[in-house]
Design a protein that fits this description.
Blueprint: H1 5-13, E1 21-26, E2 29-36, E3 46-50, E4 56-60, E5 65-70, E6 92-97, E7 105-106, E8 113-114, H2 120-125, E9 134-139, H3 150-165, E10 170-174, H4 180-190, E11 191-192, E12 197-200, H5 213-224, E13 231-236, E14 243-248, E15 252-254, E16 263-265, E17 272-275, E18 278-281, E19 296-297, E20 305-309, H6 317-324, E21 329-334, H7 345-353, E22 358-362, H8 375-382, E23 386-387, H9 393-406, H10 410-417, H11 431-435
Parallel strand pairs: 6-9, 6-10, 10-12, 12-13, 20-21, 21-22, 22-23
Antiparallel strand pairs: 1-2, 1-5, 2-3, 3-4, 7-8, 11-19, 13-14, 14-17, 15-16, 17-18
């Protein structure tokens, strides 16, 4: 129990433990609910109750008394892999947890949420998953997604390749949403896959009535059983629990801090819509079919790649610093069609002379980089700056890390950047992609 000092003594006096149903009386009001645990760094002097409405409240215990109504069990987490039912008639899906909001398990008796658990608890917390497949479950990491690093992409790609080589019919990866689109792009470049690889997450944790974890997980399993053989992101398509969208792993981006439909396809359309547990593919999207590819893992990457956002007043020191520190490549997030102040041009020339690729993306997100329109853009081209076409800035960064892992030859790296590896750029832009 993480209650301490004042709270701990209070609970001992009334013989109350986590999971018990209790009533706290305070002057002319009382609160009845199940006692939940608290985080270790929570302020002392408060108890957390889950009310019958399903909501949690914090109650200050000063000047109160408590009654024990019913003893309960402290919520238990962990589920041995051998306990998960197996049905020979169903497909075998690998679920790999890396952490994040979706990787929080709710105890059905108390409603308590636990952020650290084994991946098998995803199945326990979402028992409907057992209607669709058998599961090989594992926890690869348990981190917040802002702590994701390129070396973790390599470990994830290797683990996924191992599972596919052992015969699983599809892979679902539970991931935090903040950097999900970086990881989906990395896996898209690192893996040629004969089966679906679906990345999913949640914007809201399982203890909230508005949680999106359950439908995202179930629809991801449905996608993992489908005919597609690509790396995709599966997340809510609306604010309600109506449907989810399946996005190309290189064309997707988180576009809102908290909305459940935060993930959007950029300069592209979703691959498919999953509604009422049925998947409907976009007829305008030509996807790789299951079994078309032989499994191939190519996870060599270069981590020393800079990612620089242009802004009014940016100085050449930003570029010179990365060159002096031995960075192997630079991604510049320019304005508009791919512009930066012209005082940076000499630094870009130096980068080219030292065989450091500089790739230009746009802060506009939608549309294509075109440095041929204005004079500054043409000077940038002359200085060796290369267009990212209509790739998102994040995908461009990930791809440059991967391209530099494939070759240290400048010309070969540029060739890779302009080769369509996983549908990361389109041949032309469409207005409907922006209006979507």
């Amino acid at each position: 129990m993480t209650y301490k000092e004042i709270s701990e003594e209070y609970l001992k006096n009334y013989n109350i433990s986590i999971g018990d149903t209790i009533r706290i009386n305070k002057q002319d009001i009382s609160y009845t609910g199940i006692l939940l645990d608290r985080s270790e760094d929570a302020e002392d002097g408060y108890l957390v109750l889950k009310l019958s409405s399903g909501y949690n409240i914090g109650v200050a215990i000063e000047n109160t008394n408590a009654e024990l109504i019913e003893k309960g069990d402290k919520p238990k987490i962990g589920w041995d892999k051998d306990e998960i039912p197996h049905d020979d008639s169903k497909q075998n899906i690998s679920i790999i947890s890396t952490g994040g909001t979706v990787s929080s398990v709710i105890d059905y008796k108390t409603g308590a949420v636990h952020p650290a658990f084994t991946a098998s608890d995803l199945v326990k917390a979402n028992p409907e998953l057992l209607d669709y497949a058998n599961y090989n479950v594992k926890a690869l990491y348990n981190i917040l997604s802002e702590n994701m690093q390129p070396k973790y992409w390599v470990k994830a790609a290797t683990e996924i390749a191992n599972d596919i080589s052992q015969g699983v019919d599809g892979v679902v990866i539970a991931h935090g949403t903040d950097t999900m689109h970086y990881t989906s792009a990395a896996l898209s470049f690192m893996l040629k896959t004969p089966v679906p690889i679906i990345i999913t997450g949640a914007q809201r944790s399982s203890d909230r009535p508005s949680s999106d974890a359950n439908i995202n997980l179930i629809d991801s399993v449905i996608a993992s059983k489908s005919d597609i053989a690509e790396v995709c992101v599966c997340m809510h398509g609306s604010l309600n629990d109506e449907y989810t969208y399946l996005h190309n792993g290189c064309k997707v981006r988180k576009m809102h801090t908290s909305r459940r439909d935060t993930f959007r396809s950029i300069n592209s359309q979703p691959i498919a819509k999953i509604e009422n547990r049925k998947i409907e593919f976009n007829p305008d999207y030509s996807y790789t079919k299951r079994g078309s590819n032989e499994l191939k893992l190519n996870s060599d990457i270069e981590e020393k790649v800079g990612f620089i956002k242009s802004f009014p007043g940016i100085s050449e020191e930003f570029i010179e610093y990365h060159i002096d520190k031995g960075y192997k490549g630079l991604v510049i997030e320019g304005t508009g069609l791919g512009h930066v102040p012209d005082n940076l041009i000499n630094s870009f020339r130096r980068a080219k002379e030292e065989n450091i690729p500089v790739i230009m993306t746009s802060q506009c997100i939608y549309g294509r980089v075109n440095m041929n329109v204005y004079s500054t853009g043409r000077e940038l081209i002359d200085a060796g700056v290369v267009s990212a076409l209509d790739m998102t800035p994040e995908t461009t960064y990930v791809k440059l890390c991967w391209a530099l892992g494939q070759s240290d030859d400048y010309s070969e790296v540029i060739k890779i950047m302009h080769s369509n590896i996983a549908g990361e750029f389109g041949e032309k832009s469409s207005i409907k992609d922006f209006l979507n």
